[in-house]
User: Which sequence fits this backbone?
């Protein structure tokens, strides 16, 4: 499970953030709520990225795992930020 | 290397072994995995046959749906044509879309997985061969019956997405819609069965040493594909169930005048429907990523990035479903989120495209037929992707919504993203299963006709769409400016069809199935394991994998495999068997004894199809009989599984010994049950979403639910079920003879609790009173279904116990019944509390 969490962590945070945003928009639309949701998600992505960068890379498999994890959390970080922008551009 | 399971990786250095293997070993393998004869072709479970059956049937549906497409193009070739009456045209376009999406695209890639994965992973077969056979027969029989509805004028006619209220009883009173709802619901169950097979196969049946970083990219694609099916398809299964219930029993889930909401259907449908596009695309992209390095004679550029892109696509594709609903009046914030996600999902697809281009660029590409189809695919898919980004923008989507621009976009994406890769794959992999490869010369003509025809057919549709031509119209008036564009589209469609026709002729000339031996072999010089010499038992011995392209990196591997110098060079127990390995590093864990051919999966599939078909035509007695016989057939099939062999531990090569039976979370059965419970959990979660959605959107119809405090006894009862299931497993491991009693008692308690809960709700709300009533009773219905299954499982467990088939301190059957029963308790607990909490 640990390896799967490392590989998928960044994208899982994105999923939590996206469905949280959807729930906010559907049930209680509020820009402030989107910020309250986004800040901890960005923090989680950042922490995961730091964790991924510090992972072992002494063997082929661990090197591969580290690079996929770094890519996933990096992508997740950008995607969370991107996903949080629409409320500031819509009416 | 740090081990995952305690296995010593130094043991891999014993391979290839030096000693000569006796010839009798191979003879025994051939005897155990022998080819079927006569009627045995119906009972076969080997992936070499089931995969071919599957592919052939899916391709047949491609041809049938293609003919429907041509009929539509003839009707639209000129204004005011009278080739198809209006009502028939509605059935034809509905069936074209439905058959292409449900009966061709998903089954085709699933079939490719069934055929290719065991060879690519060097497994003897997939983990549940009988489940594969059941999934195939259910799909084939159900699909053909569904398609047959067209010939009796009963085909569905509400579009492939079946939006209510058009498909409600009021506006679609015939049984046409029921054919779609019951037929598709049933076929999706078959797809989920295939997905479970693929996930467990990819994660647990890889050749020793094939760690995740050495896994073929197609296996990665199939893994993501299957996980997406598990998450997405429950939504459409629930949607079809709800709409069928609404039509049959007047429960108003989607009737806005009675507290339902037709948009709930759209949410449920598109939560499945958009990921479906990526479900189709990802395996095709996986094929491309296998074919292009061989064609380009270079390693795939960016393997890690492609794995990441596939996984990211899997995630982000679940955040785009509502972009199909921009025109329904979504709140601006919601539309913004979905627009952003729809643009973002193009990034991972772009990573894959750039990787393919880079691989072509760094290699020395050969412009053979697979290469041409691969390159054509990139061009067409990128064109479709670009218009996809355009329609992700809300204002542009409003302009082109429901016009031919969308028809053009989706055909560019699906033909470029799936059909062209599929043709590339057929030209590439047919030498693996046929005595002769297909003709290169014909292949180039076929590619030329299909590529030109596709663009001539669909490029003008962008223009006709921008000029305002709506989708799904059966004719149009002259002078609208659409005449020439439609005529050109029709000519292009026939050119595309001519290419497919030539392909069929090429197949007839050259395809000669050789599942046992004598196939054309590795004519393209590929580097992955499916090109090892194989027979019906797959490879003679299962190699240790040390790189991603073992055939390129170790030129002697084919000979050594063929001479039995790796794992499992013989049958260790005299039965069908394969090695189960660990999910991350593929370390050998135990030997799985595999079931052989059986009549029962075939019978169960026929009876299941009969049940659904009888329900559709309202022959309820026949449906009841089919259901009972179907359950008996499944039980009979299962009774031959979960058996122990006398050898508790065997040598699987070079003195390495593994057990022949294992229990608990490491087993393939446990994994399959976990995935099944995720499917059930997703159906349940979607039903909870439905209730919450109606509460949010139809508050004026809401009735105060029964008090939450009154549910405490029920909740305690459900907790007791979970505890009893856990206790049974514990007691059995401690050797208690009566260990099965708690779980059987729990299965008996579950219907009592459900009955009490229904009694409470009946005093408050009727199922046909409002959307809330319908949604609450849908939760109770779902609970009733799994309670019934748990009761059957408990009876089966008791029967096995009485037959003395549950012995020792561990049993897979017992474990799985306990898992399922615990889930029943957990779902019952959540349903009881949630239904009372919403709107309290």
Assistant:
């Amino acid at each position: 499970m640990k390896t799967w969490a490392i590989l998928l962590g960044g994208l899982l945070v994105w999923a939590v953030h996206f469905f949280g945003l959807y729930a906010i928009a559907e049930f209680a639309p509020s820009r402030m709520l989107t910020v309250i949701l986004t800040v901890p998600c960005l923090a989680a992505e950042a922490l995961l990225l730091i964790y991924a960068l510090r992972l072992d890379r002494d063997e082929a498999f661990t090197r591969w795992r580290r690079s996929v994890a770094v890519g996933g959390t990096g992508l997740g970080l950008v995607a969370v930020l991107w996903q949080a922008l629409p409320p500031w551009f819509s009416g | 290397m740090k081990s995952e399971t305690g296995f010593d990786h130094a043991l891999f250095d014993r391979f290839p072994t030096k000693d000569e293997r006796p010839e009798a070993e191979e003879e025994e393998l051939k005897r155990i995995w022998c080819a079927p004869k006569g009627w045995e072709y119906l009972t076969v479970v080997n992936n070499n046959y089931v995969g071919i059956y599957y592919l052939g049937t899916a391709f047949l549906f491609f041809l049938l749906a293609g003919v429907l497409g041509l009929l539509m193009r003839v009707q639209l070739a000129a204004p005011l044509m009278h080739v198809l009456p209006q009502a028939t045209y509605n059935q034809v376009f509905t069936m074209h879309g439905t058959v292409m999406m449900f009966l061709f695209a998903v089954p085709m890639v699933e079939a490719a997985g069934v055929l290719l994965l065991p060879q690519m992973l060097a497994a003897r077969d997939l983990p549940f061969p009988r489940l594969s056979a059941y999934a195939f027969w259910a799909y084939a029989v159900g699909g053909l019956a569904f398609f047959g509805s067209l010939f009796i004028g009963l085909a569905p006619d509400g579009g492939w997405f079946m939006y209510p209220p058009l498909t409600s009883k009021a506006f679609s009173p015939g049984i046409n819609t029921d054919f779609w709802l019951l037929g598709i619901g049933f076929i999706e169950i078959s797809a989920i069965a295939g997905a479970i097979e693929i996930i467990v196969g990819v994660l647990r049946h890889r050749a020793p040493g094939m760690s995740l970083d050495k896994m073929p990219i197609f296996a990665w694609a199939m893994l993501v594909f299957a996980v997406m099916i598990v998450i997405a398809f429950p939504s459409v299964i629930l949607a079809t169930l709800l709409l069928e219930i609404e039509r049959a029993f007047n429960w108003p889930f989607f009737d806005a005048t009675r507290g339902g909401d037709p948009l709930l259907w759209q949410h449920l449908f598109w939560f499945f429907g958009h990921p479906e596009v990526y479900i189709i695309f990802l395996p095709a992209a996986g094929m491309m990523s296998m074919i292009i390095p061989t064609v380009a004679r270079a390693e795939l550029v960016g393997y890690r990035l492609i794995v990441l892109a596939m996984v990211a696509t899997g995630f982000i594709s679940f955040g785009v479903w509502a972009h199909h609903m921009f025109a329904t009046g979504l709140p601006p914030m919601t539309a913004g989120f979905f627009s952003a996600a729809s643009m973002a999902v193009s990034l991972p697809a772009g990573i894959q495209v750039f990787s393919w281009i880079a691989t072509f660029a760094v290699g020395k590409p050969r412009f053979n037929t697979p290469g041409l189809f691969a390159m054509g695919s990139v061009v067409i898919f990128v064109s479709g992707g670009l218009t996809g980004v355009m329609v992700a923008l809300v204002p542009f989507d409003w302009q082109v919504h429901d016009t031919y621009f969308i028809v053009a976009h989706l055909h560019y994406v699906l033909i470029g993203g799936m059909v062209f890769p599929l043709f590339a794959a057929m030209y590439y992999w047919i030498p693996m299963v046929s005595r002769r490869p297909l003709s290169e010369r014909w292949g180039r003509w076929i590619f030329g006709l299909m590529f030109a025809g596709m663009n001539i057919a669909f490029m003008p549709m962008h223009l006709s769409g921008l000029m305002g031509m709506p989708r799904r119209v059966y004719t149009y008036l002259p002078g609208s400016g659409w005449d020439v564009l439609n005529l050109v589209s029709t000519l292009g469609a026939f050119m595309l069809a001519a290419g497919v026709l030539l392909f069929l002729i090429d197949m007839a000339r050259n395809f000669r199935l050789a599942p046992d031996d004598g196939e054309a072999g590795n004519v393209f010089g590929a580097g992955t394991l499916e090109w090892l010499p194989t027979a019906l038992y797959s490879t003679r011995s299962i190699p240790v994998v040390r790189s991603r392209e073992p055939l390129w990196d170790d030129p002697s591997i084919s000979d050594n495999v063929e001479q039995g110098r790796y794992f499992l060079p013989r049958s260790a127990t005299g039965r069908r068997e394969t090695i189960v390995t660990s999910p991350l590093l593929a370390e050998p864990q135990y030997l799985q004894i595999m079931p052989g051919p059986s009549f029962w999966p075939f019978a169960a599939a026929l009876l299941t199809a009969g049940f659904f078909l009888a329900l559709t035509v309202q022959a309820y007695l026949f449906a009841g009989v089919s259901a009972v016989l179907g359950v008996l057939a499944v039980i009979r099939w299962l009774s031959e599984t979960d058996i122990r062999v006398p050898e508790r531990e065997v040598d699987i090569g070079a003195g390495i010994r593994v057990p022949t039976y294992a229990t608990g979370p490491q087993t393939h059965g446990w994994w399959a049950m976990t995935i099944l419970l995720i499917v059930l959990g997703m159906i349940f979660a979607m039903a909870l979403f439905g209730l919450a959605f109606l509460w949010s959107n139809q508050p004026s119809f809401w009735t105060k639910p029964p008090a939450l405090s009154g549910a405490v006894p029920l909740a305690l009862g459900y907790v007791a079920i979970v505890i009893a299931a856990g206790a049974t497993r514990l007691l059995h491991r401690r050797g208690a003879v009566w260990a099965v009693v708690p779980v059987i008692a729990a299965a008996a308690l579950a219907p009592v609790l459900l009955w009490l809960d229904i009694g409470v709700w009946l005093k408050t709300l009727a199922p046909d009173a409002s959307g809330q009533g319908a949604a609450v009773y849908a939760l109770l219905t779902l609970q009733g279904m799994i309670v019934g299954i748990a009761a059957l499982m408990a009876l089966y467990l008791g029967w096995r116990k009485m037959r003395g088939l549950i012995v020792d301190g561990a049993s897979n059957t017992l474990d799985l019944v306990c898992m399922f029963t615990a889930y029943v308790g957990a779902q019952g607990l959540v349903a009881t509390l949630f239904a009372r909490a919403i709107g309290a």
Remarks:
- The CA atoms of residues 52 and 70 of chain A lie 5 Å apart.
